[in-house]
Specification:
Layout (H helix, E strand, L loop, with lengths): L1 E4 L6 H10 L4 E6 L4 E2 L5 H4 L7 E3 L5 E2 L2 H11 L12 H26 L5 H8 L2 H12 L12 H10 L13 H11 L2 H18 L1
Parallel strand pairs: 1-2
Antiparallel strand pairs: 1-4, 2-3, 4-5
Helix pairs in contact: 1-3, 1-7, 1-9, 4-5, 4-7
Length: about 210
C-alpha cells in the first residue's frame, strides 16, 4: 500500500495510524500546492481531487478521505484496537467523532483560517466559532484521555494532527487546559513521535 501525505497536514493522522498498527506502507510525499509527488508524478492523475491523504491499495483502489483511509487502516489490524469492530456501539462512536472532527473542526475552523483567499472578515468570523467548537471537544473528552472509550483510536490521531495547527492560525490552546494536557500526552506516543519526525524532516528538506 502507498500512503500519499503532505508534511504535518491532516494526512499525519493516517501516518500515525499506520505506525500505531504496525502496518508497512510506502510513504509518498505530496506538494499539495504544485500537485506533484516528491518523485515528480502528477498528483491529480493519482488522486483527482488533489488533496491528502490518499491511500492506494495493492489492487489499485484509491481511498481519498480521512474517515475511509483511517478506518481501512484500523480494520487491517483489528488487534491494535484503533477502531472497534463493526457492530460494537463504540465503532459508531468513533465514526461519530470522525464526522464531528471532519466537519466542525477541520472544515469549519481550520480550512477557512488556512485559506489564502479568505478575507480578513471571513477569518474573524471563523474565529468566533473556535470557542464553542473547542468547548464541545472538551465536553466530548470529559474526564477521559481519549475521544472514545479508554484507549487511543483513529479519532485521536485525527484530532492530534489538527491540534498541531493551532499556533499557525492564532488559536491559543492554553484557553483549554484539557486539550493542552491531551496534546502533551499523545505527542509522547512512540508512533506519533516517529511519524512527526519523518514529516518534519521532509519539511526541512523542502526548505533547504
Amino acid at each position: 500500500m502507498e500512503l500519499f501525505t503532505s508534511p504535518m497536514a491532516c494526512s499525519l493522522a493516517a501516518h500515525i495510524t499506520a505506525y500505531e498498527a504496525g502496518i508497512p506502507l510506502e510513504i509518498t510525499y505530496v506538494d499539495t500546492r504544485a500537485k506533484t509527488t516528491r518523485d515528480g508524478r502528477d498528483y491529480r492523475a493519482i488522486a483527482p481531487n488533489g488533496y491528502v491523504p490518499a491511500l492506494k491499495l495493492d489492487d489499485g483502489t484509491l481511498l481519498n478521505e480521512n474517515p475511509s483511509v483511517l478506518q481501512y487502516l484500523a480494520d487491517r489490524k483489528p488487534e491494535a484496537g484503533l477502531a472497534p469492530q463493526w457492530g460494537d456501539v463504540r465503532r459508531y462512536e468513533v465514526v461519530d467523532a470522525l464526522n464531528f472532527l471532519g466537519t466542525e473542526v477541520h472544515k469549519k475552523i481550520f480550512s477557512p483560517l488556512f485559506a489564502p483567499a479568505m478575507p480578513a472578515e471571513g477569518k474573524a468570523y471563523t474565529m468566533t466559532a473556535v470557542r464553542p467548537t473547542f468547548d464541545a471537544l472538551v465536553r466530548r473528552l470529559g474526564e477521559r484521555d481519549y475521544l472514545v472509550g479508554d484507549r487511543f483510536t483513529i479519532a485521536d490521531a485525527y484530532l492530534l494532527a489538527m491540534l498541531n495547527w493551532c499556533p499557525f492560525v492564532a488559536i491559543d490552546l492554553s484557553a483549554w487546559p484539557k486539550l493542552v494536557a491531551y496534546q502533551k500526552l499523545h505527542l509522547a506516543r512512540p508512533a506519533v513521535v516517529k511519524a512527526i519526525a519523518e514529516e518534519m524532516a521532509e519539511r526541512a528538506r523542502r526548505a533547504a
